[in-house]
Structures are given as structure tokens and as C-alpha cells.
Amino acid sequence: MHHSVLFTHSRKSAHQAIVVYNDKQGEVTHRIARGPAVYTPKPTEWLHQFRWHGDNGKGKKGPRALQFEKLRVILDQLYFDVDMVRTADEALITVQLMVFFELTDIEKMLQQTHDPIADFINALKADIIRFAGGCDFEAFKSQAKDLNNLNTYTELCGGAERIGYNINKVVYRGYLASNKLQVMHDNAIELRTRLVLENETEVQQQELTDLKLDREHTRAEKIRLGKS
User: Fold this and answer.
1) What pTM does this model have?
2) Looking at residue 115, what DSSP letter applies?
């Protein structure tokens, strides 16, 4: 079934594109049409149907959940949680990320991938697993700021370039841990805080003792000098 595709003259439609296929006596070719415009397929033409990973309604990304005809050729974003990430000390966490990306080469994308979102997800998993696997849970928390640095995402950035995309930024949104791990983490924080307070109290007491001894020594020295 052939139908018209409308790109209204708006700022949004100026950043959309469609891929048109044409069958000329058994030879199939394609071309890219960009908005804003109105396009009506000829009898021998049809539009590319994109079916990518998207929200499956259960809070997860699922295959073919995102179906559309109009490509977005503008800065876009992807929220994704990398589950079952294991640190060097066997702690299991979920790492929450937000990826900003932009389609820069439609032809390369068509040739190199059927689902760029799936490619991004697999690359993110590889980068995060490598990052977390090299440190224990405490080190992960102290080094988590590096998850905002694109240099951490070699698989993601390199893979995106190979399929016609550019990764502009990755934002680390935090982590989720099991209740047991979170309790252990909270207890560790409480213990460290108590030790710090106890140490500070001990230092203060030692300083007070030293001050008293200095005063007693000074007083004794004055008494000795007075008698002499």
C-alpha cells in the first residue's frame, strides 16, 4: 500500500528524512529524501520500514519495539540501564546512563546496521562491564565520575562511527544495588563515619592532655625558679 509522507514546513520536519526504494524491472535502488517536503510514492516505490530496539512497555529495551519511516537527523538521546554489572569483588549493580547521539551518515547506517540502537546497547554493555570489572565496589563508586568521560566508551564511540553516528555525550545517572549490597554499603559508611569521629575525638583528647601537661610543666617551672 502506497501513501503520501508529509514533511510540514516546520523546524522539526527539517531534521527528518525517509529512504525511498524503487524497483525498475527487477533492479532495486534507493534514495534519501529530506524534509520539509511532501512525498507520494510512485507505483514502483516504497518506503524503508525501520524496526529498532525501543521501550517494550516493561521498562526495558526490546527488539523491533520502535517502528517508523521517518529518520531523525538531529541530536537525540537514549536512556539505558546496564543490568547485572559485576565488579572485581563480585558486587552486582545496575549502571544508569543517558547517551546523546546524532545520525551523520544515513548511507553508512543503511549499509552497516539494521538496528543502531541494539548496536549502542551492546557497546555500552561491553564498555561498562570492562570499567566495573577492573575495580571493586568501593573503587567503582569513587571512580564513577569517569563514566561521564567519552574516553571511557571506546566500543560505543568507535562502533557508532562505523555505522554513521556520532556520540556527543554520555551522562552517568547513578547506580542501583541490591538491598543486601545497599545495606552493606550503608553500614560501611556508618562504620567509616564512626571511626572518623572516634579518631577526631581521640586527637582532641590527646591535644587536651598535652595542653594540660604543658601548663603543669610551665607552672612547676615557675615554682622552681621562684624558690631558687
Assistant:
1) 0.75
2) -
